[in-house]
Design brief:
Structural class: alpha/beta
Low-confidence stretches: 149-162
Radius of gyration: 25 Å
Helix content: 25-40%
Number of helices: 2
Strand order of the largest sheet: 7-1-4-3-2-6-5-8
Length: about 160
């Protein structure tokens, strides 16, 4: 009976330590949704962006993605994001989707413009750039290098004929 009490106490201590660790990890990870005003951006593709993804300006988190959905009329991906109230963006600002390194998490990067007027709450970022697809880039590189080797030999042959 004494052994069961000790095992129960040790289990409780382990659960308490695990709960403390999870609370600390959540509070220090900065994954909470940013409170602020909403903006909209439309993309052809939003590979990897999902609700909760970061929105960064100059590498600093200034917002988070609220929703992503497909517009049935234009077939564009619409991304709604929440931006800190302190951060006001000019109307000629742009948004693009990047990732942290080769296998990192995707995030939305904002680049402020130089216009004097600011995007109002609920407004739209009109300049957007889709994410780069690494598989497509590698495929283009491989096929362009094999294609250029064949075309350079034929072009050099045509130069010799002249």
């Amino acid at each position: 009976m004494k052994r069961n009490a000790i095992e129960t106490m040790m289990g409780a201590v382990v659960l308490l330590v695990a709960a403390t660790f999870l609370a600390f990890a959540y509070s220090s990870s900065n994954v909470s949704q940013v409170e602020g005003y909403e903006l909209l951006a439309k993309f052809n593709r939003v590979d990897g962006i999902s609700p909760g993804s970061e929105v960064r300006l100059s590498g600093i988190k200034v917002g988070s993605v609220l929703t992503t959905h497909l517009d049935p009329k234009t077939y564009l991906a619409e991304v709604r994001m929440s931006i800190l109230n302190d951060v006001q963006l000019p109307t000629d600002s742009s948004a693009r989707i990047l990732s942290d390194g080769l296998l990192g998490n995707p995030y939305m990067a904002l680049e402020p413009g130089a216009d004097d007027t600011m995007i109002p709450p609920g407004g739209e970022i009109r300049k957007t750039q889709d994410p780069l697809n690494l598989v497509d880039l590698i495929g283009r590189f491989i096929f362009s290098s094999t294609g250029s080797g064949g075309s350079s030999s034929s072009s050099s042959g045509s130069q010799n004929q002249q």
